[in-house]
Amino acid sequence: MARMRVVLVLAVAGLGLWAPAVAKQVPATRAQVELSYAPLVKRAAPAVVNIYTRRMVEQVIRSPLFNDPFFRRFFGDRFGLGAGRRRQRMQNSLGSGVVVTAEGLIVTNHHVIDGADEITVALADRREFEAELMLADERTDLAVLRIDTGGEKLPFLELRDSDELEVGDLVLAIGNPFNVGQTVTSGIVSALARTGIGVSDFQFFIQTDAAINPGNSGGALITMDGRLVGVNTAIYSRTGGSHGIGFAVPSNMVRAIMTSATAGLKHVKRPWLGAGTQAVTAEIAQSLGLDRPAGVMVRTLFPGGPAAKAGVRVGDVLLRLDGHPLNSANALNFRLGTRRLGGEAEITFWRDAETRTSTLQLAAAPETPPRQTTRLAGRQPLAGATVANLSPALAEELSIDTQMTGVIVLAVDRRGAARQIGMRDGDQVLRVNGVDTGDVARLVEVLAVPAREWQITIRRGGAVKTIRVSI
Q1: Residue 200 confidence class, pLDDT cut points 50, 70, 90
Q2: Are 164 and 201 part of one and the same domain?
Q3: Are residues 59 and 178 in the same domain?
């Protein structure tokens, strides 16, 4: 790039004349005037692929009469829900992916391949391969695929430590927006550790103004050294197009998911804190002697959990994990989610107006009590519901408070009695006809007693309600 020369104008004393001290010069070479990302793109672009998915969906074709308000007035909204001809059709979708090993391991977004019956990967050289889904993790919106190239090594992108990023760093986004073909856009890192986006449970996104559009999902966000720093995931948009606010999953989380996939796991197991936390407000910070709101405060502890074993108490404020600040519950979840099971981490917390440090054992949430997943049947109002015992492990999978216990509804059949009385996935069954249902075995026992009237007490979204049913 040409170096800009400054023309310095001096006043000649006593003469009233102005003269340039340095003359302007014309750039001598093309390199002095050219700034190009071309060498970087040539090296990185072959490792970014297109992902095509197909799935069979069922479509119900009904008479237009079912949409007529006059017709619905007399026959009701529920009349004809099962009526109409059903036909199956093939649904296609498009996304992007990144080759992360020479052997054909590919990372993309979970929402790109969710529900797919067939997954096809198209390389930059236009060759296509059927892909095997190794692991899909909805909580991080990441998935890992594998293709068989017959031993041929593929171009791939190395992962960079996303904690090295700083706001203002230059980045490139590579993907296939709107299926127009591979496209490269440039920008900067606009922000780090973005939360509140709502597209995954581990919200700790890299924000960039590099243009990201539909079809870019699963594509690469790279830095100027050609390494992968994030997987493009979402955009903020009022129109569906890019408004300069895009989000990428940091590469450190990508690395953690890859580790689980290569270990042969079908579900990701993450370190578990064994504590419930809440944000530290200005009032809480002042009451605890903190000079500003920072960290997350422990409000509940699981007996014998990792936090309790590390000496953490209710009321402590967790400040840092392995030196990284914990300014929100999302930051805590992210830092734990990127650590390996079986190891240790240094936890720094605030208690009694002083900073303390302890060692946190990185253990998985326990499967206690056993799930005992059961599909309920028989002549009773919960028939058609699939229930299980809540354990810290299951609660973590469902992204709910790991301190919750009891029986939870995992699924409800469309045509079952449970659906007809309004039961939903995620409902917690507390009591049946006044009897506490602490586990699945007790629930099945209570439902086996015939009754003409039923009272089902559930917890939904923090509220407790009772459903009354007559049979």
Answers
A1: low
A2: yes
A3: yes
